[in-house]
Amino acid sequence: MRRLPSVDVVVDTAALVRKESGTIAGPIWLRDGDPDVQADFPEVGWVDLPLAVLASWVQELQRLARTLPSSGAEAICRFSDGPYYFTVRVESAGGWVVRCFETREHPAPDDLVREWKTGSSAFLASAVRAGRAVLAQCDARGWWSRETEALRRSLESGSQYTAG
């Protein structure tokens, strides 16, 4: 049986910082799991708001995981900072297509930057692992906020749909 390619959500929890406002920022990005072509989006070490984006992404991906493969369903996952977002579309049972975009000024359309195929359960599990890793780091540092609790709720609400 052929293994589906993987796309991973990468976080650098050691580099998380808490701003004066209480917002937690740190590196988060997507990485193609193919070691031959290893590509990243938006870029390696992209600094954003990992609690907010992971809470949103996990909810969207959990919703997508519950849809029928023939439905043509799609999730839209945005980065908080910068003109970047990605869509995830059901391609087949167990298979998703991740399309990465950079938003341009109007009237130019959004530009497709990357397109990857991935196993649905592996990608969702990667987002969940990233969320758990960020929460563990926040808990260890005593960083509790509405953002940490929102991410915690997202992870708990979908625990029956995720592996890892």
Can you give a write-up of this model?
The chain is α+β, with helices and mostly antiparallel strands. The protein has a single domain, classed as Secreted effector protein pipB2 fold. Helix content is 30%, strand content 31%. It contains three helices and nine strands. The protein has helices spanning 50-65, 120-141, 146-157, and strands at residues 7-11, 17-18, 24-32, 40-41, 47-48, 74-78, 84-92, 95-102, 111-119. The strands form two sheets. Strands 1, 2, 3, 4 and 5 form a five-stranded antiparallel β-sheet that branches. Strands 6-7-8-9 form a four-stranded antiparallel β-sheet. A hairpin with a 7-residue loop joins strand 3 and strand 4 (40-41). Helix 1 (50-65) runs antiparallel to helix 2 (120-141), helix 1 (50-65) runs parallel beside helix 3 (146-157) and helix 2 packs antiparallel against helix 3 (146-157). It is globular, with a radius of gyration of 16 Å. 33% of the residues are buried. The mean pLDDT is 88.
Question: Which structural class do the helices and strands define?
Answer: alpha+beta
Q: Could you estimate the helical fraction of the residues in percent?
A: 25-40%
Number of continuous helical runs: 3
**Distance N to C terminus:** 21 Å
- Rough shape? globular
Task: Please tell me the CATH architecture by its name.
Answer: 2-Layer Sandwich
Strand content: 25-35%
Quaternary structure: single chain
What is the residue-averaged pLDDT? 88
Secondary-structure element order, N to C = EEEEEHEEEEHH
Number of strands: 9
Q: Ranges with pLDDT <50 over ≥5 residues?
A: none
CATH overall fold name: Secreted effector protein pipB2 fold
